[in-house]
Amino acid sequence: MIQFGYWRYSLAALLVVGWMAGCSQGGDQAAGGSPYEGVHVFEGQVSDSSCGATHKMADAKACTEACVNGGDSYVLVIGDVVHPLQGNAEEIKPFAGQPAQVSASLDGNTLHVVRISAPGQPPPTEG
């Protein structure tokens, strides 16, 4: 004969362990949040949305500037991934076609730029 008391306690213990495992995943991630919430530092090459990692002109800076002046937007190329950059275009412009370090929040694939600087610069301090 099956003892229902044993199964009841076993099921309750299993549910508690499962709940605790879900809580240890982190509240935001367990609820479907992004592991990249907040501002993070990304390093890559500033380019334009038309060319991405492969420019049509030999001079990457001139190509990026020409494409952006023609209506394209700035992007940050990190390896094989192209992230659209949203932020002050005048702050991004000096880094056209060049490596950059971008402090930004990630929304889907888009980087919302907080700060852009040359690679190797320390990230901004919270003050």
Give structural notes:
The chain is an alpha+beta fold and 127 residues long. The chain folds into two domains: 1-33; 39-117, OB fold (Dihydrolipoamide Acetyltransferase, E2P) (Beta Barrel). It contains four helices and five strands, in the order ααβαββαββ. The protein is globular and about 35 Å long.
Number of domains: 2
The run of helices and strands is: HHEHEEHEE
Roughly what fraction of the amino acids lie in strands?
A: 25-35%
Overall body shape: globular
Number of strand segments: 5
CATH class of the largest domain: Mainly Beta
Major β-sheet strand ordering:
1-2-3-5-4
Separate helix tally: 4
Structural class, please?
alpha+beta
CATH topology of the largest domain: OB fold (Dihydrolipoamide Acetyltransferase, E2P)
Helix content: 25-40%
Radius of gyration: 23 Å
Biggest sheet descriptor: 5 strands, mixed, barrel
Distance between the termini: 68 Å
Q: Which CATH architecture of the largest domain would you pick?
A: Beta Barrel
Q: Note poorly predicted spans.
A: 13-32
Q: Average pLDDT value?
A: 79
